[in-house]
Amino acid sequence: MFPVVLDDLVPVDHVCRVIDAFVDGLAMAELGFERAEAAETGRPGYDPRDLLKLYLYGYLHTIRSSRRLEAECLRNVELMWLLGRLYPDHKSIAEFRRMHVEAVTNAGAELVRFARSCGLIKGEWIAIDGTKFRAVSSRDSILERNALRRYLDSCEKADEEQQATIDPSAVQAAMEKLRHHKEPEVGFIPVARTNAPAYNVQTAVDAEHALILTHAVTVDAGDNRCLLPMAEAASKALEQPATLNVVADAGYSNGEQAGRCEELGIVTHVPATRGVNTHGDGNFFNRSAFRYQAETDCMICPAGKALKRKQLSRKDCAVYYQAEASACGACSLKSRCTQSAHRMVARHLHEEALDRMNQRATPALMRLRRSVVEHPFGTLKYRIFGHPRLLLRGVRGAQTEIGIAVMAYNLKRMVNVLGASSLRQKLTAA
Ligand code: SF4
Questions:
Q1: 345 CA → ligand 1 middle, Å
Q2: 305, 321, 322, 340, best to mutate for ligand 1 pocket (most atoms within 8 Å of CB)
Q3: Phi, psi of 309 (to 5 degrees)
Q4: CA 424, CA 418: separation in Å to the nearest integer?
Q5: This prediction's pTM
Q6: What is the pLDDT of residues 64-97, one digit of tens each?
């Protein structure tokens, strides 16, 4: 007897009502979304609120492509309700995502602030970890880009040495190709037992409910330089608490950054990685057999002799200590210590900070780390992305996609913890 009302088709505890309440509460213009206020002249553009809602809904349902989102708007009842039966075309949908990297990050930070205000984020223990997401560019495209760079470098070198003839048209063509390459930053990173063009996505996760506090996209294959920037970003997201405990795996072992974290009141719990002595088939005294004597700035060897400071290498972050040749020559332990005339031992430039960090990294904390960080990565990669390959090119593109995915993940997590109805009420009241 009565026409169907869209509102009746969407359950009261459906996640799209949560998305609606969250996005409606955002100050879009302040966060940096363009066209948040309709222009006085010309045809009005799509409200960024609608497009953000569309993306959050899409990422929560493993729909990331703008063409698929366009199709969903025409047939999906939940999206018809969420967007008020708006049918944006795929170009407008794609353009919104392309141009709003900072605004998406700011909106994600707003959600984190809200989660803190609800007590869902305690901010006492944070786990940091990184995972790899494949880039859009193919392996061949990156190999060709690298070959072009090598070719241009060799031309420059030959030009300096004035010893070879250079074909200007070939150089011009190579420069043109490089200029138009869509992913100039991405490099090869080990992903699933192979090397592939990929980005390293870093996250800092709060241990209370595994909500992601902050994230970053880097082109570094390793995590070694990410401890301080991620810990600082987490501290900023928590508005600089007096103390913050950070746990991470041995890939983050960086004495210099651990020392800097301590100065900022961030207590790091990371197992330290140290080089293993492979000389003499690994049977020679390891570095741990040598004791540092702070008063004399010497290392004391197993025979009780002092190894004096020989040189400092800032590049290796190490100070090298060397024994007297006369002492080693007369030593009964020499066959277990060195094949050279004297033994040399390296000590990390920030050894004390490394030691303190290592002592704090107990097995229980490493278990806590695993239980906190593995859940978000699994959900991001296989429940939100579907498969861990990005759709947008470049670091900025990756940041936007990960930003939306992290927001979708946090919303999903909050719904699981609080329930959709309760979360919606809190969002509306905020
Ligand atoms: S060989 Fe030299 S460094 Fe090694 S234990 Fe003997 S005296 Fe010490």
A1: 11
A2: 305
A3: -60, 125
A4: 10
A5: 0.86
A6: 999 999 999 999 999 999 999 999 999 999 999 9
